[in-house]
C-alpha cells in the first residue's frame, strides 16, 4: 500500500498556511477555495481541470488558484503525487499587495499553470523555511520577493475579476447558498427563488461559476467547517453546524476536498509553538 504523508503548518509571521503532500493517490473533485493557493508539483503527473480548461501538470510545474477558481485533479497512469503549496487568505494578500505595490486590491493571477517554472525553486526554499522554522528575516524577504514577481509577471491589476458577467439569478443563488448553507437546500427551492427551470438553472450556474450548485454548496460548507475546526469545535458538532446529514458524510466530503479528515485538520491547531504550528499525518 502506498505510504501517504501529509504535513501542514501555519506560519504566524507570514500569516500563511503551507501544505506538503507526499505519495498522494487521491482524486480531488471539482471544488474551490476562499483563499489563494500557490503550489508546485515535486513529483508526479496529474490531470487538472480549472475553470473549464484542462492541463497536464508534471514535476516542476507551478499552479496558482485565485479564490473561487473551481478546480479538480486526478492522477495519471497510477503515479503518486508529491506537492507543496502556500495558502493565503484574501485579507492577508490585500495587505501584502498594498505593501508591495502601494495599491489596495485583490489580484487575479493568470495563467493557472506555469510550466517548468523557475519559481518552483523559490517556492520549495520558502516552504522548507516555514516547515523548519528558519530565521524570519530571510523567510520574509524570500516571500515578499516571490510575491512581487508573481504580481508583476502574472497578475492583471486592471481586470481582477472574472471575464464573464454573472447574471442576477446566479448572484441570487450564490447569496442564498452563502447565507443558508447550514440548512437543507433543494434544487426546487432555488428554481422557485429565481424563476429558472431546474435544468436551465443547473446549466447556467455551472457555465457561469465553473462548478455545479451542489458542489458550490458543499464547498461553502467545508470552508466554514475549517474555521470551526480551527476554533476547536468537535467534528461531530461542526458537521451539524455546517448542514451535513451526519458526521460520516461530513468526514468523507471534507477529505475529498481538503485531503485530510476533520480530526487530522483540527490536530494542527491543538498545539502551537512560537510562530509556527504544524502536524504530520501518515496514512
Please characterize this protein's 3D structure.
About 2% of the residues have low confidence. The protein has a 7-stranded antiparallel sheet. Helix 1 crosses helix 3 and helix 4 runs parallel beside helix 7. The radius of gyration is 19 Å and the shape is globular. The protein is of the alpha+beta class and 283 residues long. 34% of the residues are buried. The chain has 10 helices and 11 strands. The chain folds into 2 domains: 150 residues, Jelly Rolls; 100 residues, Orthogonal Bundle (Arc Repressor Mutant, subunit A), CATH 1.10.10.60. 43% of the residues lie in helices and 23% in strands. A hairpin with a 4-residue loop joins strand 1 and strand 2.
What is the number of E strands?
A: 11
Our count of helices gives 10
Low-confidence stretches: 158-163
Query: C-alpha Rg, in Å?
Result: 19 Å
Task: Report the order of strands and helices.
Answer: EEEEEEEEEHEHHHHHHHHHE
Q: What is the CATH topology of the largest domain?
A: Jelly Rolls
End-to-end Cα distance, whole Å, is 10 Å
What is the CATH superfamily of the largest domain?
Jelly Rolls
Shape: globular
Mean pLDDT reading? 88
The CATH class of the largest domain is Mainly Beta
β-strand percent reads 15-25%
Protein name: AraC family transcriptional regulator
InterPro entries: AraC-bd, AraC_XylS_family_regulators, Homeodomain-like_sf, HTH-like, HTH_AraC, RmlC-like_jellyroll, Tscrpt_reg_AraC-type_HTH
Keywords: DNA-binding, Transcription, Transcription regulation
Domain HTH araC/xylS-type: 171-268
